[in-house]
Amino acid sequence: MKKLRSNTVKEAVFDEERALYNLRDTLVLSCVFAGPKDGESALKEARDITVEDCRFSLRYPLWHAERFVLSLSSMDELTRAPIWYAKNGLIKDCNINSIKCLRECSDIRIEDCTINSPEFGWKCNGIYFHNCTLTSEYVFLGTTDAKFDGLRFQGKYSFQYTENIVIENSFLDTKDAFWHAKNVTVRNSTLRGEYLAWYSEGLTLENCRIIGTQPLCYCKNLRLINCTMEGTDLSFEKSDVEATVNGNILSVKNPRRGSIIANSIGEIILEPIVEGDVTVTSECKIETKDA
Predict the structure, then answer these.
(1) 43 and 66 Cβ atoms separated by less than 8 Å
(2) What letter does residue 272 receive in the DSSP assignment?
(3) 41 and 22 in contact (C-beta within 8 Å)?
(4) How does 86-118 read in b/e, with b if 16+ C-beta sit within 10 Å?
């Protein structure tokens, strides 16, 4: 992972404003970014750098960085908004505890990291996560063209207004996930929370375990393939859905159209659907395999 660089900055302490501004083709090794001068933007506008075994405790260190590697390093809670507008980066084996990390970044790969960052990953494009643990209150708002493999997430509002997302082999303990999301595919994963994926469009869940109240309402082009559902009452309200579920669904309420097949359904609620001044009836075919 370490790339040979023309220059090396090693075992130094930096606390001044823009300490290594516009740094080029350099290995930054075992350095500390902290101190009484409390300077911001230490590595702003850096290009072709490798930052290894460093400790950050100052704001905005990697804004507008391009072609960078950040490895074996830590960012504490004082490293506010550390990586914004960055491109073509690898972040590996890091411990990040800073608010608002990763904003409007593109083509960033994140591997084997532990991250605790409120408002993480907003409005990014082309990011890839592998084998990471992430805690965040509001995560990946408006992010597009991203892939996640082996993500363990705990938080509240996740993946809202995202587009073109693939998630595999992951565990999401979340609330209000995938609201207004478009073209999202989740495979071989567990989704636990409340009000899953309301107002989504083009969501596909394959071999997934879905846990929690009132999931998958007001959806368009929703597909469930070989999934299980636990504690899922009032499911699929006003959704266009094609679903094959193994096991029980607690209740289904007013799906708009499509097909729902499960081993058993505790309650099917079919009422007239009111849309503005028009009242329509459900066109969804609902079947139980064990009937």
Answers:
(1) no
(2) P
(3) no
(4) bbbbbbbebebbbbbbbbebbbbbbbebebbbe
CA distance 172 to 193: 8
Residue pair 290/263 in contact (Cβ under 8 Å)? The answer is yes
Looking at residue 3, its pLDDT comes to: 53
CA distance 99 to 80: 5
Rounded distance, CA 227 to CA 37, Å? Answer: 55
CA dist., res. 197 & res. 149, Å (int): 19
Whole-Å CA distances, 60 to 65, 80, 111, 196, 257: 11, 6, 21, 34, 49
Closest CA to 132 of 162, 102, 161: 102
Residue 200: its pLDDT value, please? 98
Contact by Cβ (8 Å): 243, 222: yes
The Cα 44–Cα 281 span in angstroms is 58
pLDDT of residue 265: 95
Rounded CA Rg of the chain: 23
Beta carbons of 168 and 189 less than 8 angstroms apart: yes
6, burial (CB in 10 Å: exposed 0-12, middle 13-18, buried 19+):
exposed
- Please, which residues bridge with residue 27 across strands? 8, 50
Name which of 108, 163, 159 is nearest 136 in CA terms.
Answer: 159
Q: pLDDT below 50 — which residues of the chain?
A: 1-2
**CA–CA dist 246, 207 (Å, integer):** 10
CB 266 within 8 A of CB 249: yes
- Tokens read off for 177: 């996930």
Residue 213: exposure state from Cβ atoms within 10 A (0-12, 13-18, ≥19): middle
pLDDT at 1 (0 to 100):
41
Alpha helices in 174-214 (DSSP H): none
